[in-house]
Amino acid sequence: MPQRKPSHPSPAAALSVAEKASLTSGAGDFVTQESAAAAAPAVMLSDGPHGLRLPKESGDGGQLDLHSAAPATCFPPAVALGSSWNPELAEQVAGAIAAEAAAYGVGVVLGPGINIKRSPLCGRNFEYFSEDPLVSSELGGAMVRGLQDAGVGAALKHYAANNQETDRMRVSADVDERPLREIYLRAFERVVRRDRPWSVMASYNGVNGVPVSENARLLTAVLRGEWGFDGIVMSDWGAVRDRVAALRAGLDLQMPGTGGRTDLEVAAAVESGALDEAVLDLAVERLVRFARRATNPVHSPGAIDVAGHHGLAGRAADQCVVLLKNESALLPLDPSGGSVAVIGELARTPRFQGAGSSQVTPTRLDVPLDSLRELATGADVRFAAGYALPGAEAESTDADTQLFNEAVRLAADSETVVLFLGLPAQDESEGFDRDHIDLPAVQTELLGRVLAVNPRVVVVLSNGGVVRTAPWQGRVPALVEGWLLGQAGGGALARVLFGAVNPSGKLAETVPLRLEDSPSHPSFPGEEGRSRYGEGIFVGYRGYDARRCEVAFPFGHGLSYTTFGYDGLHVEEADGVFRVGLTVTNTGSRGGREIVQIYSGGPTDSRVLRPVRELRGFISLFLELGESRDVVVEVARHDLAYFSEREDGWKVEGGRYRIEAGASSRDIRAAVEVAVEGDPSKIRLTGRNTLAEWLEHPVGGPLLSEWFAKARAEAPQEGQGALADPVMRRFLAGVPLDVICEFPQSPVPPASLGALADAVEARMAEDRERRS
Ligand code: BGC
């Protein structure tokens, strides 16, 4: 049903049913339908999210032609940008993407993608920020602001619970309400409420058996009704199966266009009365508003700032590199002397983005090997490929042996080795998941051979999804996670290795010891069309922590060439906001950026399962050597809530919570406790509530105790033993009151239960009255 009738003359009024229907599907692969009568211009759309992918009109493969896009700056993909934990940076990057969009006449960029990394196997993890909803929403929201403040719309995607590529167009994500709200919808909720994206993209998959594109609950009740979304919902490309059902559910725009075929279905449904015309009118009203917004006059067709944006892509990549390990300060290397063996084809043929719809045709490309040579002022940088990437010519055993031997000789002859390892492009892409998280065997074998001749090895990883480091990380003194860093990533890696940039990224996802440790592992990617989210809310670090599982590198981890001290953690509360304050000091040897993470744990006596800790806020700050700064991170009281399925809403439990400041989720530097007042219970007590639930209830508890006391006074010999005996008290705690009432000795007879429940309601009403 439509939510409301338009209260002012609707643009739909000027249009026929057929014209209206035509507006609700694309005019082509990446353009919406225009309507002169409704003053709605056509809107040009482009992928996203880390740069534009604007297929050239002559690209013969159309939407599926990933290689014919017009050149655009390839900024660090979300996997890297997420590791910067720097929303300001993400906003700046998005502003530059918006400038390129405007130059190309694009009104809406299809991104950012803020899905949660539920499993390390997801083929599209490189397009997503984190396993944590707060990091995802802070970075994703910043991108929405960066685009929209520059007059270009965002399409927040892929809504919702699109966490795997296996069977992505049909699979049902079977997820309970609590994890759905707390983990999978949470980032969408924050971004929609705060950053107001102009559009949201409905994902291919279903949720609990209902395709998202036909899911009225997700598209209308939750997105618009609860969160106040006022933009349009567009389908992912090809996600609509039943166009009329989709419109009815709240999906405004089917993409790509179907050449008018499904418009006829819509028009016919209106004519036959199967579809209320008001539903169509409402979609048209939203689409017209969207079209006017997205064809903003700030657009200035022209050239893109290639050099400026390449520079920004490099500065962004600088903050995305994560230094995982650095024993005996092997890094940074000295650019002015010594010999460095750069080994690995990936140093010469870098991977800098993933495959699929987000694939950008870069304007330039920094090659790590070249950048290392450029930065070396006196160091002798020599190269050996070591291995061939799949698809390249040399794949015979002889050729492999020769590459190995050359590399090992070079390693033996050099003071230090920088070994580039990583996933081949074929391993990760939109459209399929990985089935393991290992590096290619040829690379780990090469690593072993190199270590045998020279232990001073720095491994640099290039990968969009996490890889297993555990089998070899103990033997490698330094390890740099270089992710996929975009077109200027080669320069950033060289700057970090030679110390021109102090690394400051931190992991936005856990690196497990083994794939099997990952919380979703037993149920990923599901079977027979259903993916059961069996781990519930225990996703990512929430799951590793709950099982006290050792990990290779924890969520939030990342080293620097300097060190930071944390002091004076304290919390003040005012107006429902906790102000978490502390002093951070650069205690090391050079300037650097730290990301301070604030977690909460508890409350101590929670009635529901709670993660050991959950990220509630973070701050990124640069400190000069010796500099101290007082920082404050605000945590809203309602962010401590869990989603109560029973009460069908968010609920803050009263009790003592731990507030922690950490340099990672497993490097907690200080903690304090705060007392939090809980939300009043919305549960209406009945006989089906247990004795414990009655006794815990702020009104029901005292009232029931009064009844018990009265009954005892009237018949002191009856039922005395039961509640006095501690074992029986515990036994009875879990028994519903209506069962207890049936016991012959019960102080409350069954007939009085209704009166008791009514008395509770009456007292609560009085309390409410008194407070208001
Ligand atoms: C992807 C979207 C993308 C769209 C348009 C789909 O296959 O899932 O992320 O925006 O294609 O290229």
UniProtKB/TrEMBL annotation:
Domain Fibronectin type III-like intervals: 594-665
Alphabetical UniProt keywords: Carbohydrate metabolism, Glycosidase, Hydrolase
Gene3D superfamilies given in the database record: Glycoside hydrolase family 3 C-terminal domain, Glycoside hydrolase, family 3, N-terminal domain, Immunoglobulins
Regions that span the bilayer: none
GO molecular function annotations of the record: hydrolase activity
Superkingdom field: Bacteria
Annotated coiled-coil segments of the chain: none
Pfam family, one: Glyco_hydro_3
The family this protein is said to belong to: Belongs to the glycosyl hydrolase 3 family.
Protein name as catalogued: Glycoside hydrolase family 3 C-terminal domain-containing protein
Source species of the chain: Streptomyces enissocaesilis
Origin organism lineage: Bacteria, Bacillati, Actinomycetota, Actinomycetes, Kitasatosporales
